[in-house]
Amino acid sequence: MCTGIRFTDSDGNMYFGRNLDWSTSYGEHVVIVPKGFPSDWAFMADAPAGHAVIGMGIVYENHPLYFDCGNDAGLAVAGLNFPGYAQYEDAPVEGRTNVAAYEFPLWVASTFSTVDEVEAALADTAIVGRPVSENLDVSLLHWIIGDGQRSIVVEYMADGMHVHHDTVDTLANQPAFDWHLENLRSYITATGGLPEPAHWRDAELAPYGSGAGMRGIPGDYYSPSRFVKAAFLNAHYPTKDTEAENVARLFHTLGNVSMVDGAALMANGAYERTLYTSCFSASTGTYYYSTYDEPALRRVRLGDHADADPGRLLELDPQPGAISATIRRVF
Question: Where in the numbering of this chain does the Choloylglycine hydrolase/NAAA C-terminal domain appear (predicted)?
Answer without folding.
Answer: 2-305
